[in-house]
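Appendix B: complex inputs.
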Amino acid sequence: MRAFVPLLALLCQPAHAQGVASGNLPAAPKPKLSGRPFPATFTDVAASAGLTMKFVLGRAGTKKYIVEANGSGAAFLDYDADGLLDIFLVNGSRFEPFPKGQEPISRLYRNAGGGKFIDVTAQTGAGRSGWGNGVCAGDFDADGHTDLYVTYWGANSLYRNKAGAGFEDVAPRAGVTGPPAEWSTGCTFLDYDRDGLLDLAVSSYAGFDVKKVPLPGAQPWCLFKETPVFCGPRGLPHGRITLYRNVGKGAFEDVSSKTGIADATPCYGFTMIAADLNTDGWTDLYVACDSTPSLYFRNQKDGTFRELATEAGLAYSEHGAEQAGMGLAIGDYDNDGWLDATKTNFIRDYPNLYRNLGKGIFEDLVLRAGLAVNPQYVLWGTGLEDFDNDGWKDLFQVGGHVYPEIERKYPGEAYANPRLVYRNLGGGKFEDVSSLAGPGVAARHSSRGAAFGDFDNDGDIDVLIMNMDQPPSLLRNDLSSRNHWLKLQLLGSATGATVTVEAAGRKQSAALLSQSSFLSVNDPRLHFGLGQAEKADRITVRWPSGRVEEFGPFAADALVPLREGTGK
Amino acid sequence: MILLASLFLLAQAPDPDALSERATGLARQNRPQEAEKLWLAALKIAPGHFAASLNLGFLYHSRGDYAEAEPMLARAVRSQPNDFNARYLYGAALQALGRSDDALRQWRQAISIRPDHAKLLQIMAVEYGKGRYFRESAAAAARALELQPDDSSLYLVAIKAHQDAADHPAALRIAEAMVKRFPSMARAQFEYGYELHRAARPDEALPHLKKAMELDPSYEEPFFFYGEIMVKEGRWEEAIPALRRTIAIRRDYIAAWVMLARALIGHGRLELAKTELLKAIEADPKHPQPHLLLSQLYFRLGEETLAAKEKDLSLKLRRENPEALESRQGRPFPAAVKP
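Resulting structure:
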């Protein structure tokens, strides 16, 4: 018998339908390390510090719905104004019921000093169960005490700080709960109309109805690498941005339509940042969007906003691709005085390093900066902070896959990942020094939110990290360097202010943010490394009110309070 | 006449072997419809008849009727599990039906019967890669290359497979071997230059890219990649001529137009960048990316109305032509195997 020789014509590779934007990009070449020692060593001290809250979000090991996967933020704040950073951790929930009284709740830990934290949730009224997501901080009632807003899949909470004695949820009274079925994620306080009262912006992620969302694998957007996974965000209705104006006396009104915020193309919104990105003296708004173009709302100085992310270069990747924007950080990485931005994205994609060219025009220089070397991770929380106090802001990123199922089929795609630390070399270049940064960085977790601050007041920046299905990490920075530093505490209506510090001929800027990283809140005291400089010669503060003031000089290695109206 | 004879044969002696032999003869005479009837008749008598099911399966497969081919080939495989051709063709039908994992299962059996079949190994390398079984893809490609080290396309398949498997040292070694064996091939020089650059050895990479450009001035890829590297390094004056050359070779290479405009913007020649973007739009009016960069350029120039207009156009085209965003327009690695 003679059989024909078969002729094969193989098909072209089909586009892999999936629910999230991923660039399928390879790692960029990783240059050799500079050889300079990295003096910051991070050690996880969460357990010994007493931070025991186990973060719950859906079932561990499998995620049926996207609402179980994204995770939550954390906050460094000084709620009792004792000069020590306290910690607030946002908890989630799951669909399977809990025994009565054992529902996970968000927790507040008071910093007792000596590296110890005490759980004060019960006595402060800051605990609540539910599907928590993001947190932002600000003094909305201008009483000098930091308040918190916490977002949920469900009604949101506005925790008014009762002069350091505890919190009360005033969201219903203030009119800022949002619709009861909305899935809110990002939030930020900002004074967009310069009336001295902090307004509030909230992003929602997606329309999510557990009764209507298909199950894993049921639709093309419920697959990842042909593996059935939870559906979304693509395929789900987009979220929206809401802006509430603070009308005083603890009340807010929804001004999303009249300010133009509601006109923006809808997106799957995550982290929000409010700062003056184009240096015109008015607070703008930037939103990281997942699998949709990110949004930049330029303050038009007349009570309205205009969405300009595409034009300004903040919407897409360097090559114009949509990305899965998760976290955001703002800082002046090249010390030119302008606020730059960085955004974290999905696996097989690069983060963004948006260099501010001035006047709010940005250019993504992630490849040139050497930050495109680890696309093997899904990245979430991020901070542009000077970890070694050399006067150049370094970059910290935390990551973790969203699909626990994926590593069973693709062992190279781990659910838990190490953290990443990049040292700023100056000249617009970074190097990956994760392997030099200590056991807290090398440890693998599936992390989400991260907050940056100096919890032990030793003059360096520590990191608080939310881990899926685990207690948080508190990475204490043990810095072996003689570099100097300065901390600035802005007093008054300062959320959104930009500070420029000049020392030894170097100029560096930072902004006081209500939210950044991934749905998280950083230390409200702005930290500047000064290198060998023993003093800061001049400090310029651009307050959200529009006032520009100069302060200084100040000796290094100190916390300096600055109140609006007391400078030159 | 032959058909009548065949039918006579069918009526007189219902021997499935004879029917199948006769059908094969008809097929050789390019009379597939008559052959099909005889093979079907043979299968009616002997449902597990190997030759009839295999050849019918092949007939259907070659007509593109994969759904019809699949049960025939399954029958052939059941009848003779150790027949290479049956496994090979059954895998092909399954692959055409989108059942890649099932296809690979058959091909794994086929290659266990004929481990030296370089062509099948090449096919498997590509298919494993599509299914994201990157390590398996790399192993199959490496074995194929061992068997046929003079086939330049196998080097390309192996380089791609090892790139996908994130085994960049191996990809670099294969590219180096390729450039040694085919030093006058521009593609070989380009792939080696690319891998050297990826390995953070730019000083060694650039001469190979330049060599590729010298060897084949009509091969656009080295010019584009060289230009892209120069843009990333901010070496605008070196980027601009390379990207201009890319466009001269391929006017529809929109990624090169956009990169050229970026280089010109970096060089501070904003008006010229605008002109180039307008030319790109003329070259491919449906591509969203020139509009996107033009929007940003107008914004820089303070022309916000024009910037908004270009943004809207880019969004509209993005929705209408999403494939344009996925393709870098580079020359692909071989995905098909010539018979």
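Chain B touches chain A through 61 residues (CB under 8 Å).
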